[in-house]
From TrEMBL:
One function term, GO molecular function aspect: transmembrane transporter activity
Compartments where located: Cell membrane
Membrane topology category: Multi-pass membrane protein
Compositionally biased intervals (Polar residues): 386-401
InterPro entries (alphabetical): MFS, MFS_dom, MFS_Efflux_Transporters, MFS_trans_sf
Transmembrane domains' residue ranges: 42-63, 70-97, 103-121, 133-152, 158-180, 201-223, 235-255, 267-285, 291-313, 334-351, 357-375
One Gene Ontology cellular component annotation held by this UniProt entry: plasma membrane
Protein name: Inner membrane transport protein ydhP
Keywords: Cell membrane, Membrane, Transmembrane, Transmembrane helix
């Protein structure tokens, strides 16, 4: 794998750190800007809103900009958003700064996925994309715990300063290692929007929202589930979250090669196994060792879904894959919000702390149904092609159906 993939992974590492470290620093942030913890939690929503809005909008604005230049511009905006977060003197400006920091998130992943797929041989496109996603999973093991600890010891603003430094390093690495990739002659926002009109793209995005919502239904309430049902102490939950990240990393490592060999079977298997693991977790959450094993497996299966969905969207969007790839991360953030909301409804209804696991399993099965629907639409049609060069006439890879 070329060094350019390492540069893209550093970008993903910074994004993962800034997105999830905020959750661990909400008490410190609340004290620092003199608001309640629930009100401070709205800055998490502000970041997610920035992702949902920024992915299609910034990708559309940059539709004619060469990919390397667009990556550099988006990385610069990421740095500015995190510096603004560190300097924000009150809740209103911090809310705006987190929204700003979230804007380039989806576009960076979308453009990065397209760039990664064009850096390697066509039959390794999915593996290249998964290597970029490794930065996100490693952030859950190293970046988030480190950022949280730094913020707790030196003040929450220091965590955002550290993320900004990571962003600068990523920008320098992108400038040094990512080759120039000119846009095709048909590049433009209309071309990208036309590709987004494909029914298969819509079904792929719906699969991401619903299926991955099952993952977030449990992830959002994992800490109270572990403390109330498993009996773990608050101090142990950080290590458990890191274990979740280990599972995600293992899942990402195998997702790329499996997707290169058989895209749809990998997606089907990931959703089916995720649903089954969530049902098992409903039973195993009361015992420490079985719960920890199941958590690791849930993390792995959640990550296993990410790469095939990303590659599927790029395939169905044909020679205008950038906006579809970016919109996938809007879909994941909608999954985050929706899964957390439905899991919270189950708890509020008095179904118990373990109920989000069953909610997540139901969402996983629904996502599997949507994936099968897309697969049935493929029957009798032409194979999908992931465009792996800037010229749509050269170097294409057939995505397995």
């Amino acid at each position: 794998m070329p060094l350019a993939l390492l540069a893209l992974a550093v970008v993903a590492f910074g994004i993962g750190t800034t997105e999830f470290a905020t959750m661990g620093l909400l008490p410190q942030i609340a004290d620092g800007i003199d608001v309640s913890v629930p009100q401070a939690g709205n800055i998490v929503s502000a970041y997610a809103l920035g992702v949902v809005v920024g992915a299609p909008v910034l990708t559309g604005i940059g539709a004619r900009i060469p990919h390397k230049r667009l990556l550099l511009l988006l990385s610069g905006l990421f740095v500015i958003g995190n510096v603004a977060s560190a300097l924000a003197p009150n809740f209103g400006l911090l809310f705006a700064a987190r929204f700003l920091a979230g804007l380039p998130h989806g576009a960076l992943f979308g453009v990065g996925a397209v760039v990664a797929s064009r850096l390697v041989a066509p039959d390794r496109a999915a593996t290249a994309v998964s290597r970029m996603f490794l930065g996100l999973t490693v952030a859950n093991i190293i970046g988030v715990p480190a950022g949280t600890a730094l913020g707790q010891q030196l003040g929450w603003r220091s965590a955002y300063v550290a993320v900004a430094v990571i962003g600068v390093l990523a920008l320098l690495a992108l400038a040094a290692f990512v080759p120039h990739q000119p846009r095709g002659a048909q590049a433009g926002v209309r071309h990208e929007l036309r590709a987004m009109g494909n029914k298969q793209v819509f079904i792929g995005l719906a699969t991401a929202v619903v299926g991955f919502g099952g993952f977030f239904a449990v992830y959002s309430y994992l800490v109270p589930m572990l403390t109330n049902l498993t009996g773990l102490s608050d101090s142990s939950t950080t290590l458990v979250l890191a274990l979740y990240g280990v599972g995600m990393t293992l899942g990402t490592l195998v997702a790329g090669p499996l997707t290169d060999r058989a895209l749809r079977p990998t997606l089907y298997g990931g959703l089916a196994l995720l649903s089954a693991a969530l049902v098992v977790f409903w039973f195993s959450v009361h015992s420490t060792v079985p719960a920890l094993i199941t958590i690791t497996f849930i993390g792995a299966m959640g990550a296993l879904i990410t790469t095939p969905v990303q590659i599927l969207l790029m395939a169905k969007a044909k020679d205008a894959p950038t906006m579809a790839a970016a919109s996938n991360h809007s879909a994941f953030n909608l999954a985050n919000a929706g899964g957390a909301w439905l899991g919270g409804l189950a708890i509020s209804a008095g179904w118990g702390w373990s109920s989000p696991a069953l909610v997540g399993a139901a969402l996983g099965v629904a996502g599997l149904g949507l994936a099968f629907m897309g697969g049935r639409m493929d029957r009798g049609g032409e194979p999908s092609e992931v465009i792996t060069s800037s010229d749509a006439q050269h170097e294409q890879v057939t995505a397995a159906q």
